[in-house]
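Student: Please help interpret what follows.
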Amino acid sequence: MDSNEISKFFYSDFLMIGTTCVALVLGLKFWKSKKHMRIITIYLIVALVVDIVSGYIELHVKSEFAVLHILPVCLSVYVLTEITTFVIFINRNILDYRLRQTSKFLFVIFLILFFYLVPNKYLPAENQTNSVMVLESLFIVVPCLFYFYEVFKLSTPNLRGNYSFWVITGILFYNACSIPIFLIAKYIEKHISARSYDAVVSFNFILYTCMFLLFIKAYLCKKEAIQ
């Protein structure tokens, strides 16, 4: 891979990786004191490992097997970890039993759809990746809306000091904004230009950075959860 491609990858992904590292350091620092945030810390560990492995393969590994199989498996692990940790965290902060059960039901539906899209026991083929990401975001946005419905209904005070509010705000912000990105990404790549596609992917990294910044804000909050 030439230096221009390496620079492109470095500048588009470096900010996200750096923010992930900062959030992870805080998560490990507050591992004992913020028990409800541990699942987010676990997610950050998986996110960082997958990002590093995927980046290394894209930059240095020429093997077709790695590109066709290892990268999709990395994506699968990441997607399943992300939606599982997010749904668990959100459900812990939803008070209404029916809303929690609905959220769990939607999660099961996502798993069924997810493995339906997996061909030949490998994780999603290139032309299915965006569909998987859109589905994941949709099935995460709904539980987030359940949470905010309760927040606004209960008029919970002092949300600025409540870490669950900032985590779920970050989750909702990223997933709501990423849906149009994944819907148009392939069209842009095929009908406009590869450079425009790279810009769209870079914007997705920026959205992840914003979400991790809100996670950092959450780790620095003092309150445990909405009561």
